[in-house]
Amino acid sequence: MATIADVAKYTGLSSATVSRVINDYPHVSEDKRKLVHDAMKELGYFPNTSARNLRNRKTNVVAVLIPRLTNPFFTLILDGIERVAEANGFQLIICQTKSSKKKEIDFLNLLQTKQVDGVIFTSIENEWEYIQPYTAYGPIILCNEYHHEATVPMVRLDQIQGSYLGTRHLIEKGHKKIAYCMGSTSGLSFDRRLGFFKAIEEAGIDMKSDWIFRDTYTMEDGKRVFQQILQLSDRPTAIFTGGDEVASAMVKEARTHGLHVPRDIAILGFDDQPIASLIEPELTTIYQPGDEIGARAMTVFIECLNGIRERMSQAVIELPLSLVIRDST
Amino acid sequence: MATIADVAKYTGLSSATVSRVINDYPHVSEDKRKLVHDAMKELGYFPNTSARNLRNRKTNVVAVLIPRLTNPFFTLILDGIERVAEANGFQLIICQTKSSKKKEIDFLNLLQTKQVDGVIFTSIENEWEYIQPYTAYGPIILCNEYHHEATVPMVRLDQIQGSYLGTRHLIEKGHKKIAYCMGSTSGLSFDRRLGFFKAIEEAGIDMKSDWIFRDTYTMEDGKRVFQQILQLSDRPTAIFTGGDEVASAMVKEARTHGLHVPRDIAILGFDDQPIASLIEPELTTIYQPGDEIGARAMTVFIECLNGIRERMSQAVIELPLSLVIRDST
Fold first, then answer.
1. Which residues form a coiled coil (chains A, B) (predicted)?
2. Cβ contact, residue pair B248, A280, below 8 Å
3. What are φ and ψ of residue A93, in 5° steps?
4. B191 and B230 housed in the same domain
5. Global pTM exceeds 0.80
6. Quick check: B87 contacting A, CB < 8 Å?
7. What is the tens place of the pLDDT at every residue in A226-272?
8. Could you tell me if A18 and A85 lie in one domain?
9. One domain for residues A248 and A205
10. Looking at the domain assignment, is residue B329 inside a domain?
11. What is the pLDDT of residues B251-271, one digit of tens each?
């Protein structure tokens, strides 16, 4: 394997000069730069990136972990991250975990081997204790998703308030039987449920365990849950879906079964994705400023990398959600 | 064993020029190229073994370049790539180019610095001559997108047939004034236009330049183009959109303007994304097996990496498209 010495010998330059070119130092003439780069290609010399990155502590590459690319809310977060990354000379690589614990850890190894400067999580699959050790290798920022015990900066949305606003809206529309669709066991899901039950309890409404549906994320989940709801003897009159994809699939499923939305059943979305205003009836939903939390998370990441912000202690930055009333409720 | 210096001496060219030929860089005359190749044969020169050894070093990470994560067709391709990658122990990192030439080259540097084993392109922004030099560093596979001059494996869909089928369908429905929305100047766009005009010419239909719209990719583009169509004095009765996102936004825009789809204007999608069957009326569209070409591309990638398939010569694997008739035409 070619070494720096080989490049020096081939070009007739000193090893010091070759090293200056490789590490992109100033005060090297363009001629010498070109000579070295050509020789590197010729000899098949590749700088040992791991070693170099360890020394320089920067790759200017950030890994963003997201569960599912098909969910437009996450791509909106990515847009915000990317905007700030680009303005500051960072490259993003996107790692899709597909909600797999193993994949999440595999991607964290990119941080351990210094192939990236740090990681932004938009969703977490493993328990926090399995993530924590990786904070030794670079900044880890949680964006959107959060764990109450995580000791890193978290940029998140006020999920308690969001689900409270949506549930209150359904109650004000006269609904007393409301189905609740939930996701995982993360901090986000936990808080969203808190907001839902806060509104339910304030209104003194009964809640049946039959009306709670777990692991609902995708359009397929929406279709499945809607069919389950149709089978219930005591059927809810409104559904809190937790996501516009789930809600959209339910609107279509209602149409298929000849049910009118919202007259026969009201459906509340979450996120305010583009689809929310494309389908008929347009979805009442909770607007989540994904672009904004993405941008904030990347800003916080850069602050941590530059040592302006403490990266290994808990700090919470929380943004508000808002209700968008359209025609599905 | 002969060296580069020997080839340079034999041909009377500089080592740099010889190196450019060996690495297949642009801006070298055909004469010099031939001179070098002849000399290489003559002297029995084989490219540097160290470089080849380095090329064999594996990271088990593959970069997938995609233009826009918000387009579900590309996430479908990714699903196919991922399925085969996972089964073979490869990790994917996803690089969003946002159709930027510069970002595309920045991501290719991950290949040059050996942070990834190779690259799968689902869309290409730069002219092929700027991509070609990177084939020296590992397999580059084109998936979906293609360039007629690219000398790498390409897994693609028969776009000529796809747009021909769709346009024929509109003509059979009695349309004689058909607007055409196109994308970039890639091989894909070129072929899709061939299929469209083949059907138009076979039917002996006139085409006005006013009815051709460029750079239409997103929902925003769909809204913009539909508004432009409404302003035309001689308005088309059908629209070939080239994408379900564009088509969906047009269906919504038609609704906003009190126009009935397909009675007042027929709208043909492309891709068969989930949204195609969620909106009202459901979209007639061209089904593109994104998952399938993704899976094939990853299979081809592994074959190249393992030396079972030649990675630096053109090979085309083409899959068919099909028409899905719903209610928008």
1. none
2. no
3. -115, 140
4. yes
5. no
6. no
7. 999 999 999 999 999 999 999 999 999 999 999 999 999 999 999 99
8. no
9. yes
10. no
11. 999 999 999 999 999 999 999
